[in-house]
């Protein structure tokens, strides 16, 4: 039972950065903007998050630095794609390449330094409940924050008027514009939210996961987050399933190897991708069928003046 | 896929940027292709240290250029060719995956000399060089067996290539020389560098009962996990003690500087020849970090083993070597396995419970 608990704790930690980044991207894409710069925003968030925590000695300050850094990165993207109506795919890719370089520059002086990880919560009494105590009440705050965030996003998108307007912008920006909604401003806010989430996701890595900064430490997690959004067919509920499934299979395949199951490790390493894609594709086929992408995703909007 | 595309794009950008390096007559231009970002530790950092040592040694006589973050495989060919076009006459390609691209470029430019790390393909203008890290791993195996209370070692492998497999075998032979019943759990992460995944692997190994972490990957994450859990670990490539002041037992340190200096000197003197260099503790191709966090008797044992290997009195793969199937491995090198057998090692020795991926 102790092993099961340890595995679940590892899964929660491994899934959290994916869930955070994907939550932000989901909102961005629901507003009709495709930002492929998640990896770039994450890695800058990681560098600034670590820097902030190292200089101030506070995890909270580090997390805020990561969020602000992600937002600043996404502001560049918003300026290019919304302000200047540049192609979103090209800008997003450029943002990632830029972010990887910039994070190396920012993080250069922090490489080799170390901090203490974000403390795990401890609720007297509750955290000591066998098995479920540490999982429900004893992880670091980011884990619960990411879950609260996705619930909030779900509520916002489907239960509020503002969420409806945001989705309208993503499905048909011309109609939304004709109805008098400020499409570009709404998209701008969505992009900023995406940047904040990606920055926080990046900061999670050095603040809670591996407490040091190394260039390239996001190691492709931004791309996985992007893929999760697509395979979750832009729905918050499926996003949670996808992120935790990916994290779970990643950790389980490591444990299977350690236990000597004897399946080729190359196959095991591919399993998280396979399993996540298959499950999410099945999920989206079973209920709706067909594409559920926001209709205006990735298209440039230039209001007639 | 996206990541690969992106890496290629980054390599192109980098490759583009060196066109701006000013041409200087007379100076020998030496180029380097790095796998990762330089950072502050790890594989690429150790090559960068050696490059800095070159600059210090030869000063104005040479001019060095490096390209970092160059992905392995066919993409690297363009990067290597860029270095040639920029006038570099001696080019170090510092990772195994650059082997075929380096050979291809070498055939195209017979007047340029190439040095490829850890490969096995050579040409009249292409040398290879590597280090006998298995010697260090044997010492680590002995230390691990002495220090492990559970008798279970946790080993994080990158890719199941002969170099990593021979490292696992050397570790086990060293460990078995102390404790014949020692066990090892192996997790392949199929990456050289992903701190998160390496940390997850270390956690999985510790959760499953291992109490010593050994890694053949590049980041200090496993060391840091071991430190956090109050367990012991070995570093890799670089000094990692600051990530585990109470955890690091020792670390294999790549020290390329003596070799790089001798090759550049040969190039300057006009005596450069294509060679196959595989140096060990005796030629200082690598060194052991100070032995820490262990009692004096273990430290003394490690030092004695190191001295014996350096003097050539002890060979980690001394015969008989028994394979996983219980059969003795053919002894082609006299009283120890031949170099070719170690370089192409594709079997586990007896006592490793794991199944070799792809076998």
UniProtKB/TrEMBL annotation, chain B:
Signal peptide: 1-24
Coiled coil: none
Keyword Cell membrane: no
Gene3D superfamilies referenced in this protein's UniProt entry, alphabetically: 3.40.50.2300
CDD domains named among the record's database cross-references: PBP1_BMP-like
Domain ABC transporter substrate-binding protein PnrA-like residues, every copy: 28-306
Protein keywords: Signal
InterPro entries in UniProt: ABC-Purine-Binding (IPR052910), PnrA-like (IPR003760)
Top-level taxon: Bacteria
ATP-binding listed as a keyword: no
Protein name in the entry: BMP family ABC transporter substrate-binding protein
């Amino acid at each position: 039972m102790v092993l099961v608990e340890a595995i679940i704790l590892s899964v929660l930690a491994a899934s959290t950065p994916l869930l955070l980044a994907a939550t932000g991207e989901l909102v961005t894409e629901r507003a009709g903007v495709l930002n492929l710069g998640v990896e770039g925003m994450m890695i800058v968030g990681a560098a600034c998050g670590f820097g902030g925590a190292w200089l101030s000695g506070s995890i909270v300050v580090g997390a805020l630095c990561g969020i602000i850094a992600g937002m600043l990165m996404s502001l560049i993207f918003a300026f290019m794609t919304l302000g200047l109506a540049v192609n979103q795919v090209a800008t997003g890719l450029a943002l990632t390449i830029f972010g990887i370089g910039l994070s190396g520059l920012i993080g250069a002086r922090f490489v080799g330094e170390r901090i203490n990880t974000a403390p795990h919560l401890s609720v007297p009494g509750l955290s000591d409940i066998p098995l479920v105590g540490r999982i429900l009440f004893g992880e670091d705050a980011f884990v619960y924050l990411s879950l609260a965030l996705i619930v909030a996003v779900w509520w916002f998108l489907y239960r509020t008027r503002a969420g409806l307007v945001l989705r309208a912008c993503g499905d048909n920006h011309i109609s939304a514009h004709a109805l008098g909604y400020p499409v570009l401003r709404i998209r701008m806010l969505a992009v900023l939210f995406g940047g904040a989430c990606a920055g926080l996701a990046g900061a999670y890595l050095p603040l809670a996961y591996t407490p040091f900064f190394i260039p390239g430490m996001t190691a492709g997690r931004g791309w996985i987050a992007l893929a999760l959004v697509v395979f979750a067919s832009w729905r918050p509920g499926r996003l949670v399933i996808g992120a935790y499934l990916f994290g779970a299979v990643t950790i389980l395949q490591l444990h299977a190897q350690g236990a000597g199951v004897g399946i080729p490790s190359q196959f095991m390493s591919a399993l998280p991708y396979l399993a996540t894609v298959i499950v999410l594709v099945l999920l989206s086929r079973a209920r709706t069928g067909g594409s559920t992408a926001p209709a205006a995703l990735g298209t440039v909007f230039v209001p007639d003046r | 896929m996206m990541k690969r595309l992106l890496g290629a794009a980054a390599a192109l950008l980098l490759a583009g940027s060196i066109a701006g390096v000013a041409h200087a007559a007379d100076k020998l231009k030496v180029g380097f292709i790095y796998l990762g970002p330089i950072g502050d530790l790890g594989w690429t950092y150790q090559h960068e240290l050696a490059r800095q040592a070159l600059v210090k040694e030869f000063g104005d006589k040479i001019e060095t250029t490096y390209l970092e973050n160059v992905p392995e495989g066919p993409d690297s060919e363009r990067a290597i060719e860029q270095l040639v076009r920029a006038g570099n006459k001696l080019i170090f390609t510092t990772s195994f995956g650059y082997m075929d691209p380096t050979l291809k470029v070498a055939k195209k430019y017979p007047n340029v000399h190439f040095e490829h790390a850890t490969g096995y393909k050579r040409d009249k203008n292409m040398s290879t060089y590597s280090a006998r890290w298995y010697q260090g791993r044997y010492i680590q195996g002995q230390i691990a067996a002495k220090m492990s209370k559970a008798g279970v070692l946790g080993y994080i492998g990158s890719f199941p290539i002969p170099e990593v497999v021979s490292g696992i075998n050397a570790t086990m032979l060293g460990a078995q020389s102390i404790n014949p019943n020692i066990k090892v759990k192996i997790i392949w992460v199929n990456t050289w560098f992903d701190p998160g995944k390496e940390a997850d692997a270390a956690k999985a190994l510790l959760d499953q009962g291992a109490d010593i972490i050994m890694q053949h990957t590049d980041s200090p994450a496993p060391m840091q996990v071991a430190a956090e859990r109050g367990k012991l670990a070995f570093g890799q490539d670089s000094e990692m003690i600051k990530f585990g002041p109470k955890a690091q037992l020792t670390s294999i340190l790549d020290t390329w500087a003596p070799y790089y200096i001798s090759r550049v000197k040969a190039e300057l003197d006009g005596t450069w020849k294509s060679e196959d260099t595989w140096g060990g503790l005796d030629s200082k191709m690598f060194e052991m970090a100070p032995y820490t966090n262990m009692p004096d008797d273990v430290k003394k044992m490690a030092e004695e083993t190191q001295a014996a290997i350096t003097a050539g009195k002890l060979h980690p793969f001394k015969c008989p070597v028994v394979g996983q199937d219980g059969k003795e491995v053919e002894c082609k090198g006299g009283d120890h396995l031949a170099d070719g057998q170690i370089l192409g090692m594709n079997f586990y020795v007896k006592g490793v419970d794991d199944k070799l991926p792809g076998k």
